[in-house]
From TrEMBL, chain A:
The protein, known as: Uncharacterized protein
Native source organism of the sequence: Streptomyces spongiae
Segments of this protein annotated with the region Disordered: 1-41, 76-98, 130-200, 223-265
Biased composition (Polar residues): 244-254
UniProt KW Transmembrane helix keyword: yes
TM ranges: 108-127
Compositional bias segments (type: Gly residues): 9-20
Listed Low complexity bias regions: 148-176
Biased composition (Basic and acidic residues): 181-197, 232-242
UniProtKB keywords: Membrane, Transmembrane, Transmembrane helix
UniProtKB/TrEMBL annotation, chain B:
Entries under InterPro entries matching the protein: RNA_pol_sigma-70-like (IPR039425), RNA_pol_sigma-70_dom (IPR014284), RNA_pol_sigma70_r2 (IPR007627), RNA_pol_sigma70_r4_t2 (IPR013249), RNA_pol_sigma_r2 (IPR013325), RNA_pol_sigma_r3/r4-like (IPR013324), WH-like_DNA-bd_sf (IPR036388)
Lineage: Bacteria, Bacillati, Actinomycetota, Actinomycetes, Kitasatosporales
Highest taxon, organism lineage: Bacteria
Protein name: RNA polymerase sigma factor
Domain RNA polymerase sigma-70 region: 36-100
Pfam families named in the record: Sigma70_r2, Sigma70_r4_2
Protein species of origin: Streptomyces spongiae
Chain ranges of the RNA polymerase sigma factor 70 region 4 type domain: 135-184
UniProt key word Transcription: yes
Classification via PANTHER family: ECF RNA POLYMERASE SIGMA FACTOR SIGK, RNA POLYMERASE ECF-TYPE SIGMA FACTO
NCBIfam families for the chain: sigma70-ECF
Keywords: Sigma factor, Transcription, Transcription regulation
Gene Ontology process terms (BP): DNA-templated transcription initiation
Length: 265, 205
């Protein structure tokens, strides 16, 4: 413990007898709160802790104040305050007991939340794929395209324009996972602050995607913002595609996949 | 400062404390007094770190609430420590809010240092001096570290309970306590060697 060899946190070396080397300073152990407690760090037995406890813990407890506390206790007893309802913050039973008692309620709540989130997600997917379906009809260089009345005969420059990138991925311009995320984000906006929804798997996934519970809001704001931009972009794509449809041959688009072998007509 | 092994005894009392609380919940005031005597030293120590010299008053307020709400409490001895620490903490934060003082463990600097009064015996002076000294060191920690250390070491809570009192994740509290103790060790160690080491440490935040 000399002052010369200290290093910034995260260096990981501990000077107090080395008992604490196992406790990582990352602070990101959500999952296993109690499990590693015995060796988490021996707060009680490090020399500093012993010194500190000895110095700071009160040695003489004042009788006068104790008497006042007991008087308050008696008063409460007389008023029948003691069989009061246990609030959540009053329940300090060991984890297992608490969990067992709550489990039924929690399970139901989680199930309900899961259904809600799932429903919203499905609904959202439905909505957005509906939109995409529309786009597909118009922009897709699919087999139906040639039959469109607006499509003009092939033109030699056409082969370069709509391009492979635009065609196959055009319809679903975002992957479905992003849609899921957005759906969750919308659901998050709805259920935010109503506790139990956070148990749902979908919620966990959202947290994972956001990189932390506290960042969900920002993440979602960004996502939904992006998706707004995305649909604008989509609109532009569509415009371009429809514009292109009049001049660009969809057949040309169909030939592009194999540029090396110009197709004969 | 003497090594008394107090924290060990903190844990050893948990069984007795749990029994006392259970009897108190059935209306036994003597048992309530027993619980008070077991819990109060650590609670007061924690409050000293938070509000300095007002700790006794804040503790009294907390005990009024504890006495009133005892029937609501569910849990064992260790749980009772956590429950009472939460109540005490809320009282302390209320107190600090009323004072419009930033809730940092620095109630000490101004007035605590001249505490050993004329009536003190030499022993008492030495003891209270060491208490102040320890609190002074704790006051140099960032608040989250100071609180984590006090809850773990002085109140005697386990990691998850301390986290619950502070409303934080166990990992964060574990880290805070760990860093706090490490820093205290450095402060204590540096004191013997040189004066320049610890000066800057308290200002990292």
């Amino acid at each position: 413990m000399n002052s010369s060899d200290w290093q910034p946190w995260g260096g990981g070396e501990v000077e107090m007898g080395g008992q604490q080397g196992d406790s990582t300073p990352s602070g990101r152990h959500f999952a296993r709160p109690g499990a590693d407690d015995p060796q988490d760090f021996r707060a009680e037995s490090s020399p500093v802790a012993v010194l500190l406890a000895a110095a700071v813990r009160a040695r003489d407890v004042e009788g006068k104040r104790e008497a006042r506390a007991v008087a308050a206790f008696l008063e409460a007893r007389e008023q029948g305050a003691h069989p009061a309802r246990t609030r959540r913050r009053d329940d300090w039973r060991p984890r297992g007991v608490r969990r067992a008692r709550r489990s039924l309620r929690a399970t139901l709540a989680a199930l309900l939340a899961g259904l809600t989130l799932g429903g919203v997600a499905v609904a959202a997917i439905g909505v957005s794929s509906g939109g995409d379906g529309e786009g597909q009809g118009r922009a897709g260089p699919s087999s139906s395209a040639p039959e469109r009345p607006g499509s003009t005969p092939p033109d030699s420059t056409g082969s370069s324009a709509p391009a492979p990138g635009a065609s196959p991925s055009g319809p679903s311009d975002r992957p479905s996972q992003a849609q899921d995320t957005e759906a969750h984000c919308r659901a998050f906006e709805k259920v935010e602050g109503r506790g139990k929804a956070m148990d749902a798997t979908a919620w966990q996934r959202l947290i994972d995607a956001a990189g932390g519970e506290s960042r969900v809001r920002a993440y979602c704001a960004e996502r939904l913002g992006v998706s707004g931009g995305g649909s604008e972009r989509q609109k532009k794509d569509k415009e371009r595609d429809t514009a292109g449809a009049s001049s660009d041959p969809s057949t040309a688009a169909r030939t592009t996949p194999r540029p090396g072998q110009p197709r004969k007509k | 400062m003497s090594q008394r092994g107090e924290p060990r005894r903190v844990q050893a009392y948990d069984g007795e404390l749990g029994a006392a609380v259970a009897r108190a919940q059935e209306g036994d005031e003597a048992a309530f007094a027993v619980a008070y005597r077991i819990v109060q030293p650590g609670l007061l120590g924690y409050l000293r770190g938070l509000v300095g010299n007002d700790a006794e008053d804040v503790a009294s307020d907390a005990w009024l609430e504890i006495a009133r709400d005892l029937g609501r409490f569910k849990g064992d001895g260790a749980g009772f420590r956590g429950w009472t620490a939460t109540i005490a903490r809320h009282r302390a934060l209320d107190h600090l809010r009323r004072q419009k003082v930033r809730p940092r463990a620095t109630g000490l600097e101004s007035d605590v240092l001249d505490l050993p009064g004329a009536h003190s015996t030499y022993d008492q002076a030495m003891e209270s001096l060491s208490t102040e000294h320890a609190l002074e060191l704790v006051a140099q920690l960032p608040r989250d570290q100071a609180e984590a250390v006090l809850l773990r070491v002085v109140v005697g809570l386990d990691g998850p309970s301390a986290a619950r009192v502070l409303g934080k994740r166990p990992g964060a509290v574990r880290t805070a306590a760990h860093r706090g103790l490490k820093r205290l060790a450095r402060l204590l160690g540096a004191e013997g060697v040189t004066d320049e080491g610890p000066r800057t440490l308290g200002e990292s935040r």
